[in-house]
Amino acid sequence: MLLLQLFFSIESRLFEVVMFGFALAGIVSETWPRFMVLWNSLPGKAVILFIYAIIANFALASASGLVNSITGVSASALPYSHNFALILMVPSWFFVTTLMALVGGMLVIFVYLFFLLLLKPFGVQRLWHKSGYRFVLSTAVARFVWTLGVALQLGVVAGHVGLLSEFNSESANPLITVEDTTKQQLESNETQLIEKQTEEVSELEKDLTTLLNDAKEKSINYQKTQRQALASFIYEFEADSRSRCAHPEGTRVIELNDYEILQIAKLSETEDGYVYSVEPCRSAAIGVSVTP
């Protein structure tokens, strides 16, 4: 996967998908039976539900922040849009965090390998494997290597869906930087040595930088798509075209309270296609002129 692509310059997307699928299938086949054993016990089921409740709470807070970043008002004033934002975020949160949990469980193999090596001089060849299981150490090493590759790939996937802060903003600092100022302070022979060493790692650094930049770009595009979908939902479904509060023609409003409204107007020049403003409610019921 990532490691093979970086070191062997394999650019095929099909290769990436196939190798990732094989590794993921192997991890699931190893961990799923243990997961089911944990799920079939009452304490295990409580732990799993507690973990998913934590994930759901984070997704709920993230959805609230998304609504606020678009409209500029609290998500409590837009309950339907808040729910829609949650629908947009829950699948990615649950999917990626579940896969990461599986990978995290497989990384315990590293500790398992360490204990196997310590206990091997005492004649202990296996800890939890069935009798007759062959090549315990070599298969454990293979699992660990493939799990590490899947973990790296899942890190990129998590970046795509905005679960890693390093990929969340266009203004974020570059993940890989090269300092050039120190070269000016070195003598010519030291500079040549550094340049020679730089050439040796430049290709790997270039590939890794390209991979991370691609993940960052996909993350930004994914979040833009989420924002546009939510903004369209707010305007088309949450906002009212008619209201007791006067507002300009062509705009829609959401009543925040008895005295304030959120006014929404289409504006193609903005990033999300809409402009939001909090305006006073001009209504005859409260003795205010209804002329917009």
Short description:
The chain has 292 residues and is mainly alpha-helical.
Describe the structure.
It is a single chain. This protein has helices at residues 2-8, 13-39, 42-71, 79-106, 109-119, 136-160, 188-238, and strands at 252-255, 260-266, 274-280. It is mainly alpha-helical and 292 residues long. The chain has two domains: 2-189 and 199-238, no CATH class; 241-292, no CATH class. A three-stranded antiparallel β-sheet has the order 1-2-3, covered by helices on one side. The protein is elongated and about 90 Å long. The termini are far apart. The relative contact order is 0.10. Mean pLDDT is 74; it is low at 5-10 and 169-186.
How would you summarize the topology of this molecule?
Layout: H1 2-8, H2 13-39, H3 42-71, H4 79-106, H5 109-119, H6 136-160, H7 188-238, E1 252-255, E2 260-266, E3 274-280
Antiparallel strand pairs: 1-2, 2-3
Mean pLDDT score, rounded?
Answer: 74
Major sheet size, sense and barrel closure: 3 strands, antiparallel
**Main sheet: strand order:** 1-2-3
Approximate helicity band:
55-70%
Order of helices and strands: HHHHHHHEEE
From the structure above, extract its key features.
292 residues, mainly alpha, 7 helices, 3 strands, 61% helix, 6% strand
